[in-house]
Amino acid sequence: MSILLLAFDAILLTTLLGLATAAVLSPEPRRATMLFIAFGLWLSLVWARLSAPDVALAEAAIGAGIGGALMLAAARRAARRHADIDADATIDTSEDAR
Amino acid sequence: MDTSTVDLALNLYSILLGIAGAFFFIAGTVGVLRLPDIFTRLHALTKADNLGLGLILLALLPQAPTLLYGIKLLLLWWLVLLAGATGAHLIAQCAARSSDLKDRF
Amino acid sequence: MSMPAIFLGLALVLLVTMTAGLLRIVIGPSPADRMMAAQLLGTSGIGVLVLLAPALQMPALIDVGLIFALLAAVSVTAFTRRRIDQD
Q1: pTM more than 0.80
Q2: How many domains does chain A have?
Q3: Which long-range contacts (CB under 8 A, 24 or more apart) does C65-68 make?
Q4: At a CB cut-off of 8 Å and minimum separation 6, what does C70 contact?
Q5: Domain coordinates of chain C in residue numbers?
Q6: C17 confidence band (pLDDT: 50, 70, 90)
Q7: Would you say the ipTM is above 0.95?
Q8: Domains in chain B, number
Q9: Partners for C (CB, 8 Å, 3+ pairs)?
C-alpha cells in the first residue's frame, strides 16, 4: 500500500513539474492554454491526494474550468491581433501597435 | 451462503470489472497516441474511455458505503456520457468544417 | 491484498495512462488534438478520483469527479465557440 502511494506521488509530482514547465515555456498562446487546463486538472488531483477535496473542487472549477475557458477566449483575441499585426508589416510587436 | 462467500464474490466482481475498465482506458490512450488522424483518434477516445469509466464505476458500486453514494456514481457516469458525446460531436463538427483550412485549424 | 490497495493499484495504472495521454497535448499537431487530449485527461482523471475515494477513505472525492465532468463540457464548448464566431 505505502509503496503504491509512493509511486503514485512520484508520478503525480514529476508530471506536475513537467506540465508547469511546458505551459510556461510554450511559445503559442493556444497551446499554453491547453497545457494550463491540463495543469489545472493535474493540480486538482494533487489536492485530492493531499486529502483536501474542497480545494481540489475549487481548483478544478475555477482554476481549470472557468480560467481555462476565459483564457481560450483571450488566446483567440491574441491570435487575431497577431494576425492583424503580421498583415501590417511595418509593426512587429503588439506593444508597439497600441 | 454465508456473508464471507458473498463478500468474496463481490470483491472478485469488483476486481474483474476494475481490470476490464483499466484495460479499456489503456486501449483508449493507445488509440489516441497511435491512430493517424483526428477523426479516428476521436473515435478511439470517446468510446473506449467512456466504457472504461463505466466499468470502473460499476466495479465500485458494491463497495459504496451508502445508497446516495451509489446513486451519485451512476449519475456521474450519466454526466460523463452526456459531456463526452457533446464534446466529441462539437470537436468533430469543427474539424470537419475546417478540414479544408488544415493550416489554420 | 485488501480492496483499498487494489483500487490504489488501478488508480496508479490510470495515472500512467493519463501521463501517456499528456504526450498528445504536448505534441498534438492541431489545437483540436490538444483539446481532445484534455478531454481524455478529464475522463481518466474522473477514473482516478473515483478509485481514490475508497482507497483513501475520502467519499468527497466523488464531487470533485462531478466537477471534472462538467469542466470537460465547458472547456470543449469554449474551445469550439472560437471557430464558430470566427468563420
Answers
A1: yes
A2: 1
A3: C65/B76, C66/B72, C66/B75, C66/B76, C66/B79, C67/A57, C67/A60, C67/A61, C67/A65, C68/A41, C68/A44, C68/A60, C68/C42
A4: A61, A65, B79, B83
A5: 3-86
A6: very high
A7: no
A8: 1
A9: A, B
Shortest CA gap B9–chain C (Å): 13
Helix (H) or strand (E) holding C87: none
Neighbours of chain A (3+ CB pairs under 8 A): C
C-alpha cell at A22: 511546458
| Domain, as residue range, for A44 | 2-97
pLDDT, tens digit, 9 for 90 and up, residues C36-67: 888 888 889 999 999 999 888 888 889 898 98
Cβ under 8 Å to C: B residues 52-81: 52-53, 56-57, 60, 63, 65, 69, 72-73, 75-76, 79-80
- Residues in chain B, total: 105
- The range of the structural domain enclosing residue B71 comes to 3-101
Half-sphere exposure of A10 (CA within 13 A, CB side): 6
Q: What are the cell numbers at A30?
A: 493556444
Q: Do B83 and C50 touch (CB under 8 A)?
A: no
The three three-digit cell numbers of residue A18, written as one number: 513537467
- A17-42 pLDDT, tens per residue? 999 999 899 888 888 888 888 899 89
